[in-house]
């Protein structure tokens, strides 16, 4: 990833990306920016009056290399509110660095997004929260040893992480789920770097540490959201049970298939969540 190379200046890339996107008509403010995970790009197809730009055209943006991640930035109307949708993400295991999404998150802030909503696919450590379940993240455990702010030189790198999953946004998610009639669990997410799936022993360890879910993304974007002063909320789609739990033996085809089937519930939840966001709220 470029930020690992000497001389790379993330904010220069953010500025260049903002110039291009504003010329394309992507100007804020936006009620929120949404990042979609594996198989969850259908969210973007629900936008009205959408303007779409491929990541490949945007300076500093990654090119997602995982099937199920589209690689487009969309701006449009959802539930009557203007939103940004980042269709697909790059992962630390693709880029070789945790800051793969630094420029996109910086762009979300620069375009006037008031908050950040992250979605992902995950494995559940709780058999009662099985495939197809939606889980609101309440906290995370970083088991990767990586951080997207490694190499940042300013004191802003010392990001506080208490309340990283914003309580007010979490309350909006809970209320939106109730209004939409969608069960929404709550849990703690453990980040493993990937790309290999976790071993049964690693899953047991994560459970002993207090995790409810395991996955390979999202945590860097939460840290970057805090860095750019964006309130963050996150929802995970459970696509499988963790390795060694019941018949849990995860593979990527299963992740994509279950995420796609659960995508309708997630899209309804996100639409209800956006509808409940006051336009003036940070």
Describe this structure in words.
- 30% of the residues lie in helices and 22% in strands.
- With 282 residues, the chain is an alpha/beta fold.
- It has one domain (2-276): 3-Layer(aba) Sandwich (Rossmann fold).
- The longest helix has 25 residues, at 252-276.
Question: What descriptors fit this protein?
Answer:
30% helix, Rossmann fold, alpha/beta, 7 helices, 282 residues, 5-stranded mixed beta barrel
Summarize the structure.
By secondary structure, the chain is α/β, with parallel strands linked by helices. The chain has helices spanning 10-23, 92-95, 102-110, 167-180, 200-208, 219-227, 252-276; strands at residues 32-35, 48-54, 72-78, 81-87, 116-124, 134-142, 185-191, 213-215, 232-241.
Task: Tell me the layout of helices and strands.
Blueprint: H1 10-23, E1 32-35, E2 48-54, E3 72-78, E4 81-87, H2 92-95, H3 102-110, E5 116-124, E6 134-142, H4 167-180, E7 185-191, H5 200-208, E8 213-215, H6 219-227, E9 232-241, H7 252-276
Strand content: 15-25%
Give a short account of the largest sheet: 5 strands, mixed, barrel
Output the CATH class name: Alpha Beta
- What is the helix content? 25-40%
User: Within the largest sheet, what's the order of strands?
Assistant: 5-8-7-6-9
**Second CATH tier, the architecture:** 3-Layer(aba) Sandwich
Average pLDDT rating: 88
Shape: globular
Low-confidence stretches: 1-7
Computed structural class: alpha/beta
The count of β-strands is: 9
What's the CATH superfamily, by name? Answer: Nucleoside phosphorylase domain
Q: How large is the radius of gyration?
A: 17 Å
Termini gap: 31 Å
Order of helices and strands: HEEEEHHEEHEHEHEH
CATH fold-level topology: Rossmann fold
Q: Supply the number of structural domains.
A: 1
Number of helical regions: 7
